[in-house]
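Hypothesis: this fold can be encoded by more than one sequence.
Test: take the structure tokens below, design a sequence, compare later.
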């Protein structure tokens, strides 16, 4: 069997059984397979119809609206549930179109998946997925609305980016449920870049991001660090209500003993050395007195603080527990995910009160 593939990725790069295919008119034919496929399904030479594989199973259901081959010919990205006699097993096949009619089919043996007893509680897993997908979904909806109103094609690029983000989150959840490594700390991650990218993925509701000092670069898992910031930002925006904050910034009552002085002036002036951003990058459209979230440098890490209501001292031990939420309909998973990411990097997190009375999360490497 040849090791070459008409698509860009060699099939041997996949740990699961995989075949590469090419569309031929109204049919699709195998171009190559990997060793894992040959061990599970036997040798299938090039030009073998892909339908030969599906015919081995007595039952197949696609996530689309047509039969498997029709979807392959159309270039659809779908999943196929395959079931048959015990010697065949049960598989979930993922169709991954490439370009010019080429693509892959990756077969996951469902017998290798954990049982319900081995998985985390189903409710918790579904809550993790729904919580993490809300950020890019909200952003995609906002940009789609803007695209319809303005016709600016740049908004469609933002929608595509949000969809890519959702796909990565789904992949991360599958990685966790399969028990693989939680993080891959192999990247040199700029904390400033991670925070800025995360800011674009969250519906900030008019809040401002203030970057203070020379933020560090650290070896970490870039995607997980971005998720850490997304969840911290979302937590601040959702819980840092502004209705009990003064408009002048001269004094603030947040039910704590922290100093009442605000890190920003009465009119929201920038502090020296800060880099300020809003959702639309327009300072003039930001309401006076709106929430400000600060990312600043520590000697051995960084912090994320806001000038909202803060978190009472008697709740600081419980906010990281899965399911803890003070909001109706909240999943209580945002900060639990933050703590998990920090622990997986062997970092430490401390929750305290910011100088302005809001919440301050200090992350140390």
């Amino acid at each position: 069997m040849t090791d070459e593939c008409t698509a860009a990725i060699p099939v041997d790069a996949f740990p699961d059984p995989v075949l590469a295919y090419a569309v031929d008119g109204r049919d699709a034919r195998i171009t190559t397979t990997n060793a894992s496929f040959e061990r599970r399904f036997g040798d299938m030479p090039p030009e073998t119809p892909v339908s030969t594989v599906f015919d081995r199973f007595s039952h197949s259901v696609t996530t689309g609206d047509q039969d498997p081959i029709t979807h392959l010919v159309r270039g659809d990205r779908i999943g196929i549930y395959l079931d048959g006699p015990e010697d065949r097993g049960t598989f979930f096949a993922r169709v991954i179109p490439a370009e010019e009619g080429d693509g892959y089919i990756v077969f996951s043996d469902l017998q290798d998946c954990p049982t319900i007893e081995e998985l985390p509680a189903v409710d918790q897993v579904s809550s993790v997925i729904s919580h993490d997908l809300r950020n890019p979904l909200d952003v995609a909806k906002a940009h789609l609305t803007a695209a319809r109103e303005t016709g600016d094609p740049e908004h469609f690029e933002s929608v595509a980016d949000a969809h890519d983000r959702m796909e990565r989150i789904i992949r991360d959840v599958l990685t966790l449920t399969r028990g693989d490594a939680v993080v891959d700390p192999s990247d040199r991650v700029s904390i400033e870049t991670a925070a800025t990218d995360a800011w674009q993925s969250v519906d900030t509701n008019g809040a401002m991001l203030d970057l203070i000092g020379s933020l560090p670069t650290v070896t970490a898992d870039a995607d997980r660090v971005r998720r850490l910031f997304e969840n911290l930002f979302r937590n601040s925006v959702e819980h840092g209500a502004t209705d009990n904050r003064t408009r002048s910034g001269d004094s603030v009552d947040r039910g704590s003993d922290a100093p009442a002085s605000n890190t920003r002036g009465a009119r929201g002036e920038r502090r020296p050395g800060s880099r300020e951003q809003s959702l639309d990058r327009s300072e003039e459209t930001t309401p006076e007195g709106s929430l400000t979230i600060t990312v600043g440098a520590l000697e051995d890490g960084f912090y994320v603080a806001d000038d909202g209501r803060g978190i009472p001292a008697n709740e600081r031990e419980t906010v990281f527990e899965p399911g803890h939420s003070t909001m109706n309909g909240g999943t209580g998973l945002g900060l639990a995910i933050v703590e998990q990411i920090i622990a997986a990097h062997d970092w430490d997190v401390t929750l305290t009160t910011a100088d302005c009375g809001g919440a301050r999360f200090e992350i140390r490497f």
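The helical segments are 35-41, 51-54, 68-74, 122-150, 154-177, 191-200, 222-239, 334-344. The domain at 11-112 is CATH 3.30.450.20 (Beta-Lactamase).
Hypothesis status: open.
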